[in-house]
Amino acid sequence: MTFSDEVKKTFITFYGTFVDTPEFGSLRIRKDTAVGVCMDVSIPDKFGKIQFIVEDCKDPLKITLQYDSSLIEENIQIVVHSTNYDNHINTFFFPGFIDTHIHASQYPNCGILGNDSTLLDWLNKYTFPTEAALSHLPYAEKVYDKVVSRTLANGTTTATYFTTIDLEASKIMAKTCVMHGQRALIGKVCMDSNSPDYYIETCKESVSSLVEFVDYIENELCEPLIQPIVTPRFAPSCSRNLMEKIGNLAKDKSLHIQTHLSENFNEINWVKELFPECESYTDVYNKYGLLNHRTILAHSIHLTAEEIDLIKLKQSGIAHCPISNTSLTSGECPIKQMYTDGIEKIGLGTDVSAGYSCSILESAKAAFSVSRHLAIKKENQDAKLSVNECLYLATMGGAKVLDMEKQIGSFEIGKSFDCQEIDLRSPTSTIDIFEWQVPTLSGTKPKITQLNKLEAFDINDVISKWFFNADDRNVVKVWVNGHNVKN
Ligand SMILES: [Zn+2]
């Protein structure tokens, strides 16, 4: 049979154990579950989306045919966990990770920080030269190809990227995401102030290249998975005029906005000097039209109570970037306190390359650790984030930050099927897990006398083992909008 003779699959039913975190702190486990996804391009409203979820299912094919009697068997693909290892729970489906803050252009610098770097000197020494170099398009192609494939391999199905000020290189990034099948918001960086002479735009150039970039994505690329995002680098890099102009563009076209906020004390003091007319750093973005329910604020570590209230009022989201905040000694963002204060739109960002890893799972572990340090320092156990809460930030929290909680972040009917298959015993896995530690699908315990005193793991232990011990070698497959993008 040739490729063209292959029967087109218009429906996929995924079958196995589904794990997700629909609420902050919750862990939902659905075993023997069939999740049906429409892959019929002639039905764009349903394409790539979950059509049914049936728990305690014994026959996924039968369930699929019952769901839609017009489907024929040869058009249906059944995807079962790659292995079940003698009926033990080692594999499961988990929602794709959402990276709410990553600089694609800085990927070559991952792991290069300098011993004493803090934000402002790190930008000048490492970051601006690297970003400027990507106006050489062959470099941009290589870097963007690598960062997209690497993040997908780590289970990131949606990412919110900064590129550089270069329009053509930013277009390459958009095409690269399409080629690899990743869902992405892509921001051409805007900066017309306080930047090196080799890496700066005029206000006019910045606005016109942003307009052209948005037009390119909306009218030329025309790929539903890709959105442009308005990206003023941070307040010190932007004139009042630039912020107002791009804020208006975002408003007119209902575009998301991303920027940095309150990362480091020198930066905060600098913003105070540059914008004396504003009450706070957050107020700069508010005054110049950049703060609304589609705004993503990276870091937001050292906020005052007034700034928290303003962010709540405007319903903006926060990208927590714990690896970066530790690496540049920026600070410890009090995420749990923010929740208590009523900010619910909080996700995770790798902040490559101030963050040394492009893995959201690594960021989730760092969020766990930073919260523990806060608990120690403040002698307050309430500051701690649990494993489940960190996994929520990595998925549903990120979806809320992007205002996409009805589309992605968990497994629900009507949502896109963005998913990673986790296998704790994949051939290259470095997790050592013994057969008597793993619960069986039926819940039975091994019948060995010496093991009677041992508590068999429950599924929460399996998730915990994954959370702390796993890496991309345990991400065996990834789907975005029903398409297999890592196999
Ligand atoms: Zn950043």
UniProtKB/TrEMBL annotation:
It catalyses: guanine + H2O + H(+) = xanthine + NH4(+). Keywords: Hydrolase, Metal-binding, Zinc. It holds the Pfam family Amidohydro_1. One of its GO terms (biological process) is guanine catabolic process. Residues 94-485 form the Amidohydrolase-related domain. Its EC number is 3.5.4.3. Transmembrane segments: none annotated. It comes from the Eukaryota. The keyword S-adenosyl-L-methionine does not apply. The keyword Zinc applies. GO terms for cellular component: cytosol. Its cofactor is Zn(2+). Belongs to the metallo-dependent hydrolases superfamily. ATZ/TRZ family. Catalyzes the hydrolytic deamination of guanine, producing xanthine and ammonia. This is Guanine deaminase.
